[in-house]
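pls read this protein.

:::
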Amino acid sequence: MNKDVVPVQVRGILPANSGCAVFIGNDEKVFVIQVENTMGWIIGNFLKETPKDRPLTHDLMNSIFKGFGISVERVIISDLKNATYFARLILQQQNELGKKLVEIDARPSDCIALAAAQKRPIFVASALFEQVEDMSEVLAKINEQGESGESGEAGEQSEEV
């Protein structure tokens, strides 16, 4: 992996007014990607390895991938345009003919969910990582509120994953 990307992880998921705030980052910086409530729930369940009664869409995708010998190689959150994040899903297929990589444009929320399901790495383009606002202190305050038991909607609903 070259220096054009920065490794990150999901650092937290918090319900927000317009869906869920997914905190993505590393020890240097954390930023937020807003996703739909359902996607926040799905990502959280994959990270916590919560069993489901029936497969959901991302479970179906993983089953199809498995059936064709495809795995998520990595995810790259690549760009931010007009307040919308863009991502690339890098898939690998290994079979008797060799190894093939395919890069697909996808929503960051779907990419993060699939990476969480398969325990695969998430990266952010270095230029984008430098550009995003650091939300490390906000996440730290939310986690402190949750740990101290202070009343407050954000602290009580915060999930450290």
Residues 136-148 form the longest helix (13 residues).
